[in-house]
């Protein structure tokens, strides 16, 4: 009787901890997006987008050599997005091949893993991991697409007239890169799920704590931006070329 009770709790532990871990991640990102839309200056995403817009404005006001260097920066970001998209697609292909394999020897079906190790559960874990990587691939592809569009706009003769379009494309590319990275974070949690629901749940809590301190800037950072905004009028009168 005791053995049956232990097996029952071990088998259905995934039904409790895994949804709770995913819920924690989703609720945190809903909170982050709400704060970003209501108070963008209090999140690292809003501050980075602000810096990107200022960067585009300074590039368009600078000399032609500054534009050439800016194109190199955008090209580097495009290469990073393309590389991450390739990695995500490669991992998705490997998981798809693994799902199509008929081999019954699976290390994740070991009895040492405290959780549901039935074949159907392993199949669902692979599907969830595959979906996370495919979302990451789609986001990185869209990021590269927007950054390539920035290169076209930067190289156009009337680039100063398309400043708003450049700002929009740069921030859009950064947003898609952000979503792609967050999809990889979710994929990391899905990967830990293969070792049991407890590691996945603990990793979700730890990841939310780490991401909170990364996404929500501190008071000192806020004061730094306020100080820079206060000095903006003085620096505008100085003139000069754009610098990195």
The total beta strand count reads: 0
- What radius of gyration results from the CA coordinates? 23 Å
Average residue-wise pLDDT: 81
**Structural class of the secondary structure composition?**
mainly alpha
Transmembrane segments: 12-34, 122-144, 191-213
Keywords: Membrane, Transmembrane, Transmembrane helix
Protein name: DUF599 domain-containing protein
Pfam families: DUF599
Q: What's the topology here?
A:
Blueprint: H1 2-11, H2 14-38, H3 44-61, H4 64-100, H5 119-155, H6 163-193, H7 197-215, H8 219-230, H9 232-236
Walk me through this protein's architecture.
The chain has 244 residues and is mostly helical. Helices cover 80% and strands 0% of the residues. The N terminus and C terminus are likely disordered.
């Amino acid at each position: 009787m005791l053995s049956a009770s232990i097996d029952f709790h071990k088998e259905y532990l995934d039904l409790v901890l895994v949804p709770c871990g995913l819920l924690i991640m989703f609720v945190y990102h809903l909170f982050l997006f709400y704060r970003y839309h209501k108070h963008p200056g209090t999140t690292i995403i809003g501050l980075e987008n602000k810096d990107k817009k200022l960067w585009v404005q300074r590039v368009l006001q600078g000399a032609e050599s500054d534009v050439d260097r800016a194109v190199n920066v955008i090209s580097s970001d495009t290469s990073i997005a393309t590389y991450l998209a390739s990695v995500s697609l490669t991992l998705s292909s490997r998981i798809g091949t693994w799902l199509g394999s008929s081999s019954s020897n699976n290390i994740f079906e070991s009895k040492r893993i405290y959780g549901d190790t039935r074949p159907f559960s392993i199949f669902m874990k692979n599907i969830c991991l595959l979906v996370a990587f495919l979302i990451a691939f789609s986001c990185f592809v869209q990021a590269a697409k927007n950054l390539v569009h920035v290169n076209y706009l930067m190289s156009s003769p009337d680039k100063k007239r398309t400043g708003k379009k450049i700002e929009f494309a740069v921030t859009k590319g950064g947003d898609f890169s952000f979503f792609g990275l967050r999809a990889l974070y979710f994929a990391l949690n899905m990967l830990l799920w293969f070792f049991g629901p407890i590691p996945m749940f603990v990793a979700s809590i730890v990841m939310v704590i780490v991401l909170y301190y990364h996404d929500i800037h501190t008071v000192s950072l806020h004061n730094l931006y306020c100080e820079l905004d206060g000095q903006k009028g003085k620096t505008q009168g100085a003139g000069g070329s754009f610098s990195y």
